[in-house]
């Protein structure tokens, strides 16, 4: 995995505006997914893990609102 | 022992970005979510080896990347058709761009060599430093910088070449920029 690649020499050859454009486009695409928040399955997964480890930790599971997903409806229910 | 609340919160806080990274690696939302799930299970199983206060996102990204890498090796051929599958997954609607521009960018991204795409996303989208990205990928900082630069060059080349047919010269930026209101 430690393949040798010559250190960057292209820096500066690309216009800053091009780099910025690529960067902002990339972040925009990425952000769309990030904005989907935490899917329920992962919230549940952590909750199950907590309960398995320590049943009394269940209550603490409510402190974290997983995401601003409107359809998230299982908070606090078991 | 229970999962420390702050650790759990740190894990949950990292999930959205972890997921975005997984989707960008695998090009497939379902597989990405499986990858995230496997990552979380792996992390929880080894949670004792996590130093509270250290970099949770980097830790999780490292696990996910390694999982993906081993899976990738196994299913190389399947993943290699990324040209098609990567480009057509992620059905997020391109509100900010025209359809053509959106597809162009996505296709160009999909055509990047795996190493370069990974480095570009970690640094350019996930917000990791070059040092963190190097740690996640298990390579030298200079290697990451090189990959990121190559990725950028290649993206801009691809986009300008493909764009040139449609728009004439000087589209290197325009094809990418694609600012909605900025006609």
Describe this structure in words.
- The complex is a heterodimer of chains A (78) and B (183).
- By secondary structure, chain A is mainly α.
- Chain A has two helices and no strands.
- Chain A has helices at residues 16-34, 40-53.
- The termini of chain A are far apart.
- Mean pLDDT of chain A is 67; it is low at 1-12 and 57-78.
- By secondary structure, chain B is an all-alpha fold.
- Chain B has ten helices and no strands.
- Chain B has helices at residues 5-26, 29-45, 56-74, 76-80, 82-88, 99-111, 114-124, 130-137, 141-167, 172-177.
- The longest helix of chain B has 27 residues, at 141-167.
- The N and C termini of chain B lie far apart (58 Å).
- Chains A and B meet through helix 1 and helix 2 of A and helix 1, helix 2, helix 6, helix 7 and helix 9 of B.
Poorly predicted runs of 5 or more residues of chain B: 81-96, 163-183
The biggest beta sheet of chain A reads:
none
| Residue-averaged pLDDT of chain A | 67
Rounded Rg of chain B: 18 Å
What does the overall shape of chain A look like? Answer: rod-shaped
N- and C-termini, Cα separation of chain A: 44 Å
Task: Describe the global form of chain B.
Answer: globular
Q: Ranges of chain A with pLDDT <50 over ≥5 residues? A: 1-12, 57-78
How much of the sequence lies in strands of chain B comes to: under 5%
- Cα-to-Cα separation, first versus last residue of chain B: 58 Å
Number of strands of chain B: 0
Number of helices of chain B: 10
Q: Percent of residues of chain A in helical segments?
A: 40-55%
Structural class of chain B: mainly alpha
Largest interface: pair, residues per side: A-B, 50 and 56 residues
> What is the total tally of β strands of chain A?
0
């Amino acid at each position: 995995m430690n393949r040798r690649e010559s250190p960057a020499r292209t820096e500066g050859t690309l216009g800053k505006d091009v780099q910025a454009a690529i960067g902002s486009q990339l972040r925009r695409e990425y952000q769309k997914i990030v904005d989907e928040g935490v899917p329920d399955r992962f919230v549940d997964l952590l909750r199950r893990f907590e309960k398995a480890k320590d049943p009394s930790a269940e209550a603490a599971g409510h402190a974290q609102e997983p995401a601003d997903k409107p359809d998230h409806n299982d908070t606090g229910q078991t | 022992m229970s999962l420390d609340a702050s650790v759990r919160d740190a894990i949950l806080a990292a999930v959205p970005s972890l997921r975005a990274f997984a989707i960008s690696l695998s090009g497939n939302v379902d597989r990405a979510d499986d990858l995230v799930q496997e990552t979380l299970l792996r992390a929880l199983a080894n949670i004792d080896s996590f130093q509270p206060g250290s970099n949770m996102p980097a830790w999780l990204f490292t696990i996910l990347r390694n999982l993906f890498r081993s899976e990738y090796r196994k299913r190389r051929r399947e993943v290699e058709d990324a040209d098609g599958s990567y480009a057509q997954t992620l059905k997020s609607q391109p509100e900010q761009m025209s359809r053509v521009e959106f597809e162009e960018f996505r296709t160009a991204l999909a055509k990047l060599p795996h190493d370069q795409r990974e480095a570009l996303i970690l640094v350019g989208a996930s917000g990791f430093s070059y040092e963190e990205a190097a740690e996640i990928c298990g390579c030298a900082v200079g290697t990451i910088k090189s990959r990121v630069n190559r990725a950028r060059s290649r993206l801009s080349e691809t986009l300008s070449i493909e764009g040139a047919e449609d728009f004439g010269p000087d589209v290197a930026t325009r094809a990418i920029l694609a600012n909605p209101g900025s006609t």
